[in-house]
């Protein structure tokens, strides 16, 4: 049974980890409000990195809400994600969606990423 937590080991923590994903993106899920970039990692679990720029989401409270929703949906979706390093990039307009719309959009994005993984196998 996979562990559905979001501890320190499930996060991309270093600039080197982020550069590795940006430099060698194997999977991409795009939407006008967000972008997911992913590449395989050597661990047996997925890891998530968040990029929520002030340029795209102006207020800190909105940036924090977007990050909270991204972490929560990742936490629940990690059971069907393979060992990947994933970067979530927020785009303009994501903060204009309601909480339920953000959750739905992110759940759909995780499912699209999962389908891309399955198609490659």
TrEMBL record:
Enzyme Commission number(s) of this protein:
3.1.26.5
Q: Please provide, in alphabetical order, the Gene Ontology terms of the cellular component aspect for this entry.
A: ribonuclease P complex
Which GO MF term does the entry hold, naming one?
tRNA binding
Could you tell me what reaction this enzyme catalyses?
Endonucleolytic cleavage of RNA, removing 5'-extranucleotides from tRNA precursor
Asked if Acetylation is a keyword of the record, the answer is no
What's any GO biological process attached to this entry? tRNA 5'-leader removal
Q: List UniProt keywords, sorted A-Z.
A: Endonuclease, Hydrolase, Nuclease, RNA-binding, tRNA processing
Transmembrane regions listed in the UniProt entry: none
Q: State whether it acts alone or in a complex, and with which partners, per the record.
A: Consists of a catalytic RNA component (M1 or rnpB) and a protein subunit.
Function according to Swiss-Prot or TrEMBL: RNaseP catalyzes the removal of the 5'-leader sequence from pre-tRNA to produce the mature 5'-terminus. It can also cleave other RNA substrates such as 4.5S RNA. The protein component plays an auxiliary but essential role in vivo by binding to the 5'-leader sequence and broadening the substrate specificity of the ribozyme.
Similarity section: Belongs to the RnpA family.
For this entry, the protein name equals Ribonuclease P protein component
Source organism per entry reads Porticoccus litoralis
This chain is encoded by the gene named: rnpA
